[in-house]
Queue: 4 jobs
Job 1
Amino acid sequence: MHKDNLLHQFGFSTKALIGKKLNFFCFVTLLGYTLVALSTKIGVLAANWQAEVGASYQQPNAMHYFGTDILGRSVLAKVLHGAEVAMSVGFIVALLAVAIGTMLGIVAGYFGGIIDACIVWLYTVVTAIPTMILLMVVAFVLGKGMQSICMALAITEWTETCRLIRGEVMRHKSREYIQAASAIGASSARKIFVHLLPNILPLMIYQFSLVFQTAIKQEVILSYLGIGIQNKPSWGIMISDAKTGLLRGVWWELFFATMAMFLLVLVFNILADALRDLLDPKLKGR
């Protein structure tokens, strides 16, 4: 696919993606989450989330919109930092997993033979292990913290991307434009990076969106179980801490943490489905 045609396609796809009202709302919501994450990361928003700002378990009011937790800390500040944790984990894991899966998928699909057999065996073994058990084992081995969780999630989330990219490369490498490149003496690197990679880029983008939201959900689960993010507000930790407060009628910490996660995953699901419809030629015109 020519570079200008590729850019034109993605320019058209961007306009079509946010052309519908629901998609535009999801896009603006996702942009809001991104701005919140960046602002909390650099300390513009909720810099002193650990500070006591009111009485213990204060209900949502004009002073504290999301109420306070058992230590009198602002639930709103913790939710904002939870968004920063979720977006950071989602982006890093999606980037690593898609990069690993794409690299191995291209190598397996293009070269075939024993290399293909080894890579297929590897992702088959990883896929056969229950995801949560594998995540817990890797998290225990690497330790707690942001870097360990990102590595654990990347190790478990690359397999589907690898499988899909491998199949796509096998489909494309027998086409005329690859045969023409071979006829004029193009190297394997040129055929992969100049001819194959632009054609599998839509699939990579779609996989990035899927891994992003999966990583967010898995991070919340791991943090809820106590083997995830440490020393930072995470929605999983907030949900875990809020369990004891429910017996006393303290609902707001659980509610706002759950709703923040639910809204982010929902808008990603909607945008991912819309992106798939735009990038998959089989679905165009339906």
Job 2
Amino acid sequence: MPFNKEQYLSRIGISQPPATAEGLVRLQSAQLQAIAFENIDPLLGVTPSLDTASIVRKLIHGRRGGYCFELNGLFGQALDALGFRYTPVLARVRMGQPEGGPRAHLLFLVETEDGAWLADAGFGGPGFPAPLRLETGLEQTMAGDAFRIRQDRLFDELVVEKHTPDGWFALYGFDRASVRPCDLEAANVVCSSWSQSPFPFHLMMNRCTPFGRISLFDTNFTETQSGTSMTRAIETPAELGEIIRNDFGIDIGPAPLAAIAARLSFECVDAPA
């Protein structure tokens, strides 16, 4: 099942964008709003397949989401099909720490007529909703949030940071080491099954909206608009299923929903009919 440009554009709800900086912004923003970050497979003990046919089958035809290797795997196929010039890189996730872990997050450096950009349609945390200019020290504001890229000379990395009430929060750091398919396969196994990875142990979902962002961590559902977040607890598997389907746009059946509910230790794990 090869990548089909028309099917992809239909899935994310836009017409074909030009291979320009403006087109790149449209493309990343549309995918982040249409296809959710979700780690259902790793949570249920499945290592996602990264071949093109599997990603297309799951994310486009199966109306599922995925995590970074799947989401940015699809995004990379789109960049290629639409004529963008790009380079994949692997980042070390920091999430507020002074240094990152293993290279386990995929993203892209994209060259346009308007300079170089950092494009990422697969970060499930508090990521940037549109590409960032690849320029150190420049504060870039979008959807009410401020981001910047700084040089970390200690680790010889560029670090993407988001501004919070407590100051600048490091998301991840990256260098320009070449990325091969075997690197992605190894990182995929680490992320989906390593005891120190969060993905086999917690339900994590995230989707950008026209107004902000929605996210799910285990049984806590959070909506963020204009920098203000509201979180509520999910009480039942039925409510969880409605949120997964209606808010995150993920097609999930009774059996996987029951398995997720069991992992999250709901008192009642029977799935709705």
Job 3
Amino acid sequence: MAKKSYFVTGTDTGVGKTMVSAAILEAAKAQGKRTLAMKPIASGCDQTPEGLRNEDALMLQQAITEKLPYDQINPIALEPAIAPHVAAQQAGKTVTAQRLVGFCRGLQIQPADLLLVEGAGGWRVPLNDRETYAAMPRELDMPVILVVALKLGCINHALLSAEAIRSDGLAVAGWVANRVESEAMDCEQETLNYLSTHLGTPCLGVLPWLEQPKPAALVRYLNIGPLFES
């Protein structure tokens, strides 16, 4: 059974959740840990001879140590690159939190030191008309890793996301700052200092902007120790 399981969310869409998740998995691998990962829902998938495939899910598949078929990593693959609940409606599929919980529990029972489950967009992304994605980690009582894109407005987005996660009864296990633009944001260090003081959870790393980022190249910027301490 996976000893440590975490849900990875972001302050918004396009903040680098997959790259951060893959880098954490690479860092764990470098420490001799056995790892698993999944992205239960992925929109923006490409048609291939093997079926629909998502580049983010493929990146996770490459980063983990334990071999898994693609369908276990990404059980719900949707072609349109739009909000998952809309893509599911267009595909005639019903997505519920309970269904996603079942997929996750299927991986949790497999032996590993670390399981990462990557969400879609931010914390309140809809699954359907009644539920948001947050219902799944809430049902699993899964601590959360928050990815913060370093850009104007990120303090507000990060604090609101952490507040929402905690109000749903879950722990914020740590946060990762990710530079998503080639030019550093104004007052970046002051922003990092404020977040470090006010998020109330360990900073697991500050990742640089790279023109062609590779998860393995980001390992040295991470400190994943807090994920295995408790």
Job 4
Amino acid sequence: MKEFEYGHDNAVAPTQRMLASLVNVSPVLASGVASGLGMPVPAALPKAIERAPLPEVQRSDALSLMALPGECGIRTRQIAILVADGVHGASIATLHSALLAAGAVAHFIGPRVGKFIADGDAEIEANKSLENSPSVLFDALVLPDGANGIETLARDGHTMEYVKDQFRHGKTILALGASRKLLAMAGIAPSPGGDAGLIFAESAQAADVAPAFIAGIAAHRHPSRDSDPPKI
């Protein structure tokens, strides 16, 4: 992650100058970035002034995002609920209601826009599709239960993009029942140390698991998944 921006410059000289400048800030950081770029650590750039002025402020909580977190909760957060013919309708309807009550904006997203028939012949209207509303637009993801629906979603390549991107970006994922298969296909398994943003539940537990899912969304991102290179 450290070398992400530097690595987008196709010319070597500007990258070397930026690394040389970074040596003045932190030799340790410069060494790590250079290693990620496959480059040697250059000599430090000459300083603009030899004696830098002493900082007037050593620490300020007023400048900390942690000290000033702003509004908590999930109001206005965009949630994707994947659907297809044969999914378990009652559980995702329960979660949809819980999310709306918490102020979130929940969308049913299918392989196409339009009506789908859930188990028990219940109708679900998908207002967005996997193709026209990519994962990056959403703050969290619900994967439905229902073997037939999961088989349909598993055959659609967009589904894997959804799952992998949500996981890579540290967003909260709730997998109901049979949808564990989709996570397994994406190479995602429960973390040995625990991951508050990766939640598993059976369909019958939808109402009970809703508060944990909402709390995970409120945390915004789950940086414990970050790795270099990424695991998924």
